[in-house]
Amino acid sequence: MKLFHLLRHLFLPHESNNQRAKILHPGSLFLIVLGLVSFQFILGLANRSFPRVLGYAANISPEEVIRLTNQKRVENGLTSLSENSKLSQAALAKGNDMLAKGYWAHFAPDGTSPWNFFLNFGYKYKYAGENLARDFSDPVSAVNAWMSSPTHRENILNPNYQEIGIGVVEGNLAGTDTTIIVQFLGTSLNGETGSISEAKAKGVAATIEPKSSIAPKPTLASTPIPTPVPIPTAAPPQVTTSESAIAFVSPFSSTKGISLLVTGILLMVLSIDFIVVKHKRIVRVGGRTFAHIAYLGMILAVILILKAGQII
Questions:
Q1: Helix 62-75, helix 139-148: angle, nearest 10
Q2: Helix or strand holding residue 153 (H, E)
Q3: 163-222 tens-digit pLDDT
Q4: Whole-angstrom distance, CA of residue 118 vs CA of residue 188
Q5: Which long-range contacts (CB under 8 A, 24 or more apart) does 272-279 make?
Q6: Are strands 125-134 and 176-188 parallel, antiparallel or unpaired?
Q7: For residue 130, what are the contacts with CB-CB under 8 A and spacing of at least 6?
Q8: pLDDT tens digit string along 25-62?
Q9: Which of 24, 96, 195, 201 is the most buried (most CB within 10 A)?
Q10: What is the C-alpha separation between 241 and 97, in angstroms, rounded?
């Protein structure tokens, strides 16, 4: 019986809560916001103390990223890309290089370009491109984020590409545990595409500058690069990713799930409150329920945005 009265007090308009569900009172909404912020803080501390329990990479596989990328290409009338082991090794090396040198960019602080990794692993290209993503909880959200960006989408849907390699690494980047997805796209000099043949027939240089997802300035035109130099006969450097971990909790998924749960409960209570007040013809003075819910919704949106993944 006590439980029934407590639930009624929290979720239904009643004399005990001044005819407004207690959870919709300003003080309760403030405590909810405080609880969500505290949850974020606790997750951050736990992620540093237990990196093998909290993480992102457990839900991301290179094979799934490739499948989803090809799905987007097929949906847009393009051929699927073939996975190339050299590109996959190069992408993995790029991810580890970012973790080792502490940067999040297409070009390393020492000037190393993405195309150096292509060549270091023996992939001599006609066309090359790179997309980067970090802190996504699953492959679908990462690929969808790329497709929502015009420059990244252009890379994925470039008809000149024939092959793909994906590297997924996890580690500490600038003091934050993170997961990085490196997507390398390319066409090898060993094969010839229709586009290259047409270019040769028209007297246009067949080798073009590799494209990153960074949009060029409107006043500048892309310039051709020289044909890649022969690759040394030495074996490519061996790069290993961090030890695989079984992540039981994803910080972003947890935040998103709890935020959606809280929002759903509040919307349900708000709907019940509206129906009961209208049915009983309860008169309120200075009610600001909608304003409070809107404020809470804004806080939830900010929390989700702060925890969303990034692409470059």
A1: 40
A2: helix 150-156
A3: 999 999 988 887 777 889 999 999 998 764 333 333 332 233 333 445 554 433 332 223
A4: 10
A5: 272/11, 272/12, 272/21, 273/12, 273/13, 273/20, 273/21, 273/24, 276/12, 276/13, 277/13, 277/19
A6: antiparallel
A7: 94, 106, 114, 155, 182, 183, 184, 185, 210, 212, 213
A8: 878 878 887 887 787 677 666 655 655 544 444 468 99
A9: 24
A10: 11
